[in-house]
Specification:
four-stranded antiparallel sheet; 361 residues; elongated; disordered C terminus; 17 strands; alpha+beta
């Protein structure tokens, strides 16, 4: 069997749902060490959410640039297993294709890069410069304890990276038909809208947070955020998840939690999108209030990895004064922002931190 395909099967068989690496990096490290790479495992993050990172380097016999092959071993959750035609972590062939979670994003690239590195150093054992791998299990998640933390470590050591190839799937129809030299920004938020729980038979004694959130969602979805430009499509807004209710059909929920995301062009920034989202016509009627916080400052720009990290954001939902729940039933709600700006090398990735504030009277 083809060496790349065999390694791919082994990677797909590991259920590396973010941030769990499930042994993928250990497998890759064994292969790279056999090819002369010095491998360093750099775990970061809290207990229960530990992120695995791998920094592997092979130095040549004389000076030269450092080329980094970068990627991630984690995958997104599978969703309902009964909606799969085959088990997501059992490599399965159908009609000449290999199916499994992570085959496209991005375990095929990992397998190809590892085998290419093995073949390169076998053919050129006295190569110049350094060939390196930077892998993380925190790309599909918050991306706080992954690449950016490895970058901090490397910068503290004074290591310089000259160029980087990322194995993300970008081709449309055939291999190599698209090469990207930039990316859109991503700004995510979790919005909690607080209501007052009650029985559906007595709506005058309750406040339905879904009804409160619906006009704001509709307004945000209908907004034109920018027109894009020659290099990026227009900024888009999407709701990815809505959670509310107890499961009972006769109970008005007490809160609604909404996950949303902007994919934005260089015509917008995280700050401009946050500002517009919180000063929409809905906001002008007194529904939202937020202010910047000094907590969790943005990290400095990093030219060679194009990422920085910031902490979550908090936002309070404020109903109009006439309809505001009592103090006993009211508590802070949170909107957590995770942001990465659009980039063309050199570039930065940044977010900001906000804190909930008392609702204005």
């Amino acid at each position: 069997m083809d060496s790349t395909l065999l390694l791919l099967e082994q990677l797909v068989a590991r259920a590396s749902v973010t941030p769990d690496d499930a042994g993928c990096q250990a497998l890759i490290a064994r292969r790279l060490e056999a090819a002369g790479f010095a491998c360093e495992h750099l775990p970061f993050g809290p207990d229960g959410g530990r992120v695995d990172n791998l920094w592997a380097v092979r130095s040549g016999t004389h000076p030269g640039p450092t080329l980094v092959l970068a990627g991630h071993t984690d995958v997104v959750p599978t969703g309902p297993l009964d909606q799969w035609n085959s088990a997501p972590f059992v490599p399965t062939y159908r009609d000449g294709r290999l199916y499994g979670r992570g085959t496209a994003d991005m375990k095929t690239s990992l397998a190809a890069m590892v085998v290419a590195a093995e073949e390169f150093v076998a053919a050129h054992p006295a190569h110049a410069g350094r060939l390196a791998f930077l892998l993380t299990s925190d790309e599909e998640g918050p991306s706080i304890d992954g690449t950016v933390r490895v970058v901090d470590t490397l910068q503290a050591r004074g290591e310089a990276l000259d160029c980087c190839i990322v194995g993300e799937p970008t081709c449309v129809d055939t291999l190599g038909d698209t090469i990207k030299n930039g990316r859109r920004g991503s700004l995510s938020a979790r919005l909690t809208v607080l209501g007052v729980q009650g029985h559906v038979a007595y709506p005058h004694l309750a406040r339905n947070p879904i009804h409160v959130a619906a006009p704001a969602i509709a307004e945000l979805a209908a907004t034109t955020w920018d027109a894009g430009n020659d290099h990026f499509p227009p900024t888009s807004f999407q709701i990815s998840n809505i959670h509310s209710g107890t499961g009972a059909t006769n109970v008005i929920p007490g809160e609604a939690v909404i996950d949303l995301n902007f994919r934005f062009s260089t015509e917008s920034t995280p700050e401009s999108l946050e500002r517009r989202a919180t000063t929409s016509s809905t906001a002008s009627r007194g529904r939202w209030a937020a202010r910047p916080s000094s907590r969790g400052p943005a990290r400095s720009a990093r030219r060679w990895c194009a990422r920085s990290a910031r902490r979550p954001t908090l936002l309070r939902h404020c109903p109009p004064p006439a309809a505001r729940p009592t103090a006993a039933s009211s508590r802070a709600s949170a909107r957590k922002w995770w942001s990465s700006g659009p980039s063309t090398p050199p570039s930065t990735r940044s977010t900001s931190t906000w804190r909930s504030t008392p609702c204005p009277a």
